[in-house]
Design goal:
Length: about 160
């Protein structure tokens, strides 16, 4: 089942002749294809868990594409781990392990660049963007509890 699931995933989204357009890919994965490919390459280089392996019967195990896809689906859509068996042929325990490995690897890879305290330049960019969008004074007041929400039935 693993090989057919991987073949379907590759055929649908990653093969050069797939029917999936860039926009389809972005809607399905919540990111551009080149970003996915960068993530895939980066996690494979840092963590052997994301490299293709063979099981005890010498059959290919889950592919790196499958593992990263499952981790991203679970996080982006809140998909439960037990639902991945039906769509990707991966049992719940393997899915949970995959998400843990993926998260640990992402933190290891990108913490210095993306998971850090903002510096003054970052803050200036955030303030400028917020002001352009009508959210002046955003920094320091992220809860927005003072706003009247049009569709909120509380209060």
């Amino acid at each position: 089942m693993k090989q057919s699931d991987d073949a379907g995933l590759m055929n649908n989204y990653f093969d050069p002749n797939s029917m999936c357009t860039e926009e389809d890919f972005r809607l399905r994965f919540q990111m551009r294809r080149h970003v996915f490919e960068r993530l895939l390459c980066d996690v494979q280089q840092v963590n052997p868990y994301f490299q293709q392996k063979r099981d005890r019967a010498a059959r290919p195990n889950f592919s790196p594409h499958q593992k990263v896809t499952v981790a991203l689906r679970m996080m982006a859509y809140g998909s439960p781990a037990d639902s991945m068996d039906e769509t990707h042929g991966m049992f719940e325990s393997t899915c949970l392990n995959t998400v843990q490995e993926f998260c640990d690897t992402i933190v290891q890879l990108y913490k210095d660049e993306y998971l850090r305290q903002p510096n003054q330049e970052d803050m200036n960019q955030l303030i400028h963007k917020a002001e352009e969008r009508g959210f002046s004074g955003m920094i320091g007041s992220l809860d927005y509890m003072h706003w009247d929400w049009k569709n909120c039935r509380i209060g």
